């Protein structure tokens, strides 16, 4: 990774850090003047590098904030997904219970309808027996007087 950072900084700052001095005759400059010139150039390069480092640091902080925000949103999305999944499971469970209840009620209705038909038939038979018995009673009433 340090190689890639080194390469990154080298390529990114190469053009910005190179300070091009106008071409002059360096023959008449004293070593002290050259040293001062080189120190000035070095200070400019260090200042530019510092600015670039600060900009890089700000970008890294911004990226870290975005990463944290994305992680927070991802967590919220997972929570929402879990709640929705729970809701769907509860809904499916309620639907299954409702279908079972409807099926049971339909079966119970069928059984009750059959029982009603049986009892109605039995009632008709008993009514017929009663009518016969009432007829026989009326027929035999004349002997009781």
Question: Could you explain how this protein is built, in words?
Answer:
This protein has 145 residues and is mainly α. The chain is built from 2 helices and no strands. It has helices spanning 2-17, 31-144. The radius of gyration is 51 Å and the shape is rod-shaped. The protein starts with a helix and ends with a helix. The mean pLDDT is 88.
Helical fraction? over 70%
Give the helix/strand class.
Answer: mainly alpha
Report the span from N to C terminus: 128 Å
Report the biggest beta sheet as strand number plus sense, adding barrel if it closes: none
- Give the low-pLDDT segments: none
Q: pLDDT average, as an integer?
A: 88
Number of strands: 0
- Tell me the strand percentage band: under 5%
Number of helices: 2
Multimeric state of these chains?
Answer: single chain
Radius of gyration: 51 Å
Element-by-element helix/strand order: HH
- The backbone outline, from C-alpha atoms, is rod-shaped
């Amino acid at each position: 990774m340090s190689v890639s950072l080194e390469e990154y900084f080298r390529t990114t700052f190469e053009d910005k850090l190179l300070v091009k001095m106008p071409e002059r005759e360096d023959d008449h400059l004293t070593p002290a003047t050259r040293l001062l010139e080189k120190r000035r150039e070095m200070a400019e390069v260090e200042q530019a590098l510092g600015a670039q480092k600060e900009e890089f640091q700000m970008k890294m902080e911004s990226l870290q904030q975005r990463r944290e925000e994305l992680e927070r949103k991802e967590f919220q999305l997972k929570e929402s997904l879990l709640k929705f999944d729970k809701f769907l499971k509860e809904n499916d469970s309620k639907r299954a219970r409702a279908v079972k209840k409807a099926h049971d009620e339909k079966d119970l209705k069928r059984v009750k309808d059959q029982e009603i038909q049986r009892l109605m038939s039995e009632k008709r038979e008993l009514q017929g027996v009663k009518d016969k018995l009432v007829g026989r009673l009326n027929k035999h009433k004349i002997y009781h007087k």
